[in-house]
Amino acid sequence: MTQTFIPGKDAALEDSIARFQQKLLDLGFHIEEASWLNPVPNVWSVHIRDKECALCFTNGKGATKKAALASALGEYFERLSTNYFFADFWLGETIANGPFVHYPNEKWFPLTENDDVPEGLLDARLRAFYDPENELTGSQLIDLQSGNEARGVCGLPFTRQSDNQTVYIPMNIIGNLYVSNGMSAGNTRNEARVQGLSEVFERYVKNRIIAESISLPEIPAEVMARYPAVMESIATLEAEGFPIFAYDGSLGGKYPVICVVLFNPANGTCFASFGAHPDFGVALERTVTELLQGRGLKDLDVFTPPTFDDEEVAEHTNLETHFIDSSGLISWDLFKQDADYPFTDWSFSGTTEEEFATLMAIFAAEDKEVYIADYEHLGVYACRIIVPGMSDIYPAEDLWLANNNMGSHLRETLLSLPGSAWNKEDYLNLIEQLDEEGFDDFTRVRELLGLATGADNGWYTLRVGELKAMLALAGGDLEQALIWTEWTMEFNSSVFSPARANYYRCLQTLLLLSQEDARQPLQYLNAFIKMYGTEAVEAASAALSGEAAFYGLPAVDHDLQAFPAHQSLLKAYDKLQRAKAAYWSK
C-alpha cells in the first residue's frame, strides 16, 4: 500500500485513516462519508456523520482527498473524546445519577449553604480570571448535561503545564466559555497538542487582527512560489473572479498564523480565513483549504462587505460570528497599502516534540498559563487545551448573562405543558416568570432545555416568544395572545412548515375576530374553512378556548421517548460511557 506522509503528521495518511476507521467500528460507531467537495485544485473537504445519530458529524479539509478524510476522522475522535457532540444537551436522569457523568476521573463538589464556589475547584489564578469580584455562585456552575444540583458542581481534571499540578475546572465553564476551541486528536500526543495549541493561536490572533483593525503585510510572490499547489488553488479562484490576498498574520514573527482573504466583486463582499501551524507551508495550506471547507464556488456569496465602522467590527458579537462561520464584518484597514507589521518569513517547525516546546514557550513569554486534559480512552490520543485570556471564545460574564444551564430549572415545567390543566393564572404567571428571569424572546426552547427534539414537531422551532403566545391562550388573555401570535408570525414563520404557518394565520384571524364584539363568529366559519381548512380552524378554535393551546407540541415523558433524535444521541453517549468505564477500570 502506498504511504503518504504530509508535514505536521506523525503517521502516513493511509495508516491514520485505517486506524481511525477500525477504532470507530470497534466502538460501535458506523460512519458514512455524506458529501465531498473539490471546488479548485488541491482543496478537498468532506462531511462525515454517524449513520445512527445525525447530530454526530464532522468536516475535514486538506490538499488531497486522503488528507481531508484523515482530518475529518481526527476531528471525529476529538469530538467523541471530549464529549463535544453532547455539549449542548441534557443527558437525562439515569446518566445524571450514574457512576459518572462525563469521565470516571471527574470530581463532584457539593454546593455549600451560602452557595459559594466550592473549595477545591479552580486555582487562584483561574478564580481571579473568571470571578474577579467574587460574585460567582456554585449553583451557576451546575453542568447542563447532568443538571444535578444534589450532586453539586462537576470538575474535570486538567494538568497545569507550568508545574504539572492537577486543577479541577467546572464542566460548566468549559462548555460555556471555550466550546470547541483548543480540542484536538492525532496520531501522537505531541502531534495533537501542537494542533490544539496552533488552533488557540489562530483564533486569538484572528480576533486581535479583526478587533484592532490591524493592517497585515502581504506574503511576497517569491515566498508564495515555494508552494506551487497553493498557488494553483489561488490562481483557479482568481480565474473564477475571486481576487485573493495572502497575508502574514504572525504580527512581526511572533505567532505561527496566516490570513487569506477572498473578495467577491459580484456582490462587494469579502471573507477572511485564518490558519496556524509551526510550519509556514502547513499554515498557508490550512488557511486556503479552510477558505473552501464545505463550500463550493457558488457558496461564496453569503459574506459581508468590508466596513469603515471599526467599533462595530470590534464588537464581541462580531467576533463570535467569525468563530461560528467566519461571516462577520472585516475592516477595510486590513487591506491598507502600508502594513502595521513588516513581513516575516517565519518558521517554528521541527519535530512535533520540538514544535510543542516552541509553542509552549510563546505562551510562557506572554505569561499565559496552559491547562491540558489528555484523553486516550478511545484508543486515539486526544486533548482539550485551555489558555484563559487567550482561548476563551465567550467572555467570563456569560456565566451570568448566557449560561447554558439557565433554563434547566424550567425543563420539567415546560415539558409538562402539553396536556396540562393548570389554573389559568398559573399559565400567565409563567409568562411573568420568563420575563423576570430575562429570557430572550428569540431563544429556542429546545436549546434552553438542552433537548434534541428532531425537526418533525413544534418543539423544534418553538421560541420563547411563541411559547408566550401559547401560555397567553391557555391563560385566557387573548389580547396578550394576539401580541405574541403576531410576534411569532413576524419573527418565526420563515422556519415553520406550511401547515404551521397556515395555523398561525388562522389563529391570528380568530384572535382579531374575538375583539369584534359586534360580529358573530359563526357567520365567518364557512369562509374560514375555505381559506384555512377544517383542521386549522378546529385547532385554532381549540387554542382560542384554552382547551388545546400548545399546538403541535407532543407530550413529553420523563425519559424523553417522544424525541427519537435525543434517544439516538443517548445511545451514542452510552457507547462512549462503556468505553470510558472499561479504560479507567484497567
From TrEMBL:
InterPro entries: YcaO-like_dom, YcaO_C. Pfam families: YcaO (PF02624), YcaO_C (PF18381). Residues 60-432 form the YcaO domain. The keyword Ribonucleoprotein applies. PROSITE patterns: YCAO (PS51664). GO terms for cellular component: ribosome. Coiled coil: none annotated. The keyword rRNA processing does not apply. It comes from the Bacteria. GO terms for molecular function: transferase activity. Keywords: Ribonucleoprotein, Ribosomal protein, Transferase. This is 30S ribosomal protein S12 methylthiotransferase accessory protein YcaO.
